[in-house]
Amino acid sequence: MSFSNIFLRPFHTSKECYHIIKMSRLRVVDNSEIGRRAMAEGKPPKCIHVYNKKGVGTIGDKVLVAILGEKKKGILVGVKKHQPPRVPKFDTNNIVLIDDTGTPLGNRIHVPIPVMLRTILKEKTFAKGVDYTKILAIASRFV
Amino acid sequence: MFSNLYRQCLVEKHFVYNLFPLCKWSQCFASSQPELATESTIQAFEEPEKRSIKLEQRFIYPEFLPDPKIEWRNSIRERLERQDMLKRRSQIEIPEFYVGTIMAVTSFTPHSTSKKNRFLGICIQRKGCGLRATFVLRNIIDNLGTEVAYHLYDPTIEKIEVIRLEKRLDDELFYLRDALPEYSTFPLDMEPVILPDNTPIPVNTTQVILKPRPWVGRWERTDFKGINREHMMTLISDKMKMQIAKHQKPWEKYDLMKQYRATIPEEEQKEIFAEVYSQLHQLELGKKKSKRIRTFVKPKKSA
Fold first, then answer.
1. Are A119 and B110 within 8 A, CB to CB?
2. Which of B65, B160, B194, B207 has the fewest C-beta atoms under 10 angstroms from its C-beta?
């Protein structure tokens, strides 16, 4: 490889990490009206904020997404990035849309979700705050 | 390459040392000597069965061999790890498996109400040495590709089942992520297929058809035999085709030092397996015995 080639390259050569950061495209996996329409039109939601200190989302994190010109909140229920042992890694970055009280917009999740989400979401739920555990009730399968 | 050289030396040494005992043996044995350079003849000289068993074990128990990286070698730690591995193996049955084998792992989890979690899938990678040995299972569940990595000696694993014991053409099958879903879809309630004893491990020679790009890897630049190359060439651009030759490294197979640094020498392998052989053998015998007990079904009275 010639010397000039290195500087002319417009791309980086390291392997991608599949981090969920701002502007990442996600996939809605519940049957909410807006989510289904967005996926069918080929306009998957875009992450515009990750509600944690790192700015990189992982399983159980809340994200703000731009979906069909609207702002919605969602919970990540499966990610593509490398995971520690015994934690499932999926082929897509999946979210379930929720409203401000934590109630999911759809009433069914049609993909498997990780078992550890049970504990994570229970920990994040407070007595008079947002109740995330309703997502677990609409899940069809855990892995 | 080095091991070949070593074997050559070994053959000559054996030839010299074993001439005398050879003469003492029967004539027919001596007459079958012309093909001296083959491995089987070396085995015939010394430790007739043991040697072949020991060298075969590097495929069955690859994690018993330490990491060949010299900076990370530590003979005491390696020995301690081997003892721990044997202890773990006496607790649970860790079966023989290869990349391409369909397996199911039941592990304890604090997250679910049943406290147990079972995942079935095809083994797409097996790596790591000692207690850090891991394997990755892949399956497509509800049309979504799911992968789970496990430590082989994880104390939270309750049971490892081999559903279909087979090998593939490659050492890792990450290209299944980009292959059509039917190649990595297995029903979660798959029935185990039991091979009769002493049969060679079947090799699955399927060549997968890839989905159109984008892919997770540059599969056109690799030489995986499990990918249907003809079909793959129809999916890539002319520019990519031109770049294939540029990225090939045909000199690597002549790089003796690279090969040497990536492998454990034969003498050391034999030493390690001699150390663990008796215990592994005992475990295997116990496994066979328990299997026989389990398969026994009490005949029912008719009428």
1. yes
2. B194
